[in-house]
Structures are given as structure tokens and as C-alpha cells.
């Protein structure tokens, strides 16, 4: 696992020229790794934040309001963010699959056209 900045730099360093299919696959994998790391962090932060807020039970400024319910309402935003990060991962896979569906067949046909058949003779 790398840091978030390292992951972002890795994603930003991938340019879509040359072997485009390989670059798109690499971009997808890097984006998935970043999204999984982010989702894991948000999941940990959600449980930790909810636990920390729940410990405020009995605080005089909260005036007896149900602290656990309030903590859950606050922490659920981190759960929503985690789901969005998981969605980023899924959409990156869909990006790769859609590219392959739309363009890969055309790329393989073009490669087949460019190959000359060997006729058993040397042409000088």
C-alpha cells in the first residue's frame, strides 16, 4: 500500500497514447487501488469517529440528548463517502470494459490487416 499522494501521482502519470489498451488497463488498476485504499480508510474513520462521539454520553452540554443516535447520524456521512469510493472502483472497471467492448475488436482487426501472409519466398 502506498500513500494517497503516491497513488494519485501514479494515476496522473499514466498517459493514453502508445499502447492505449495497456494504458487504460493500468489506469483502471491504479484507480481501483486508490479507491480501495480510500474506502478502507473511510470505513476505519467511520467506526472510530462514531466510537469517539459515543463516548460523549453524559456531557453536560448535550443535555441528555441520545448521543449514540447523533453519533450515528454524523458518522453515516463517512459511510456514504465509503460507498462513493467503492463506486469509483466499480466505474473504473466499467470504463475498461466499455473501452474493450467498443475499441478492442477494431484494434485487433487492424493488426490482422497489417500482417502479410508468408508465401515461403524471400522478397529482396
Written account of the structure:
There is one protein chain. This protein is mostly helical and 124 residues long. The chain has one domain (4-108). The protein is built from 3 helices and no strands. The chain is rod-shaped, with a radius of gyration of 25 Å.
List the helices and strands and how they pair.
Blueprint: H1 4-12, H2 20-54, H3 67-114
Write a concise keyword list for the protein shown above:
124 residues; mainly alpha; 3 helices
Mean pLDDT: 83
In total, how many beta strands? 0
Q: Indicate the radius of gyration in whole angstroms.
A: 25 Å
Largest sheet, strands/sense/barrel: none
Structural class designation: mainly alpha
Count of helical stretches: 3
Order of SSEs: HHH
Shape: rod-shaped
Uncertain spans: none
Number of domains: 1
Terminus-to-terminus distance: 54 Å
Percent of residues in beta strands:
under 5%
Helix content: over 70%
Q: What does this entry show, briefly?
A:
This protein is mainly alpha-helical and 124 residues long.
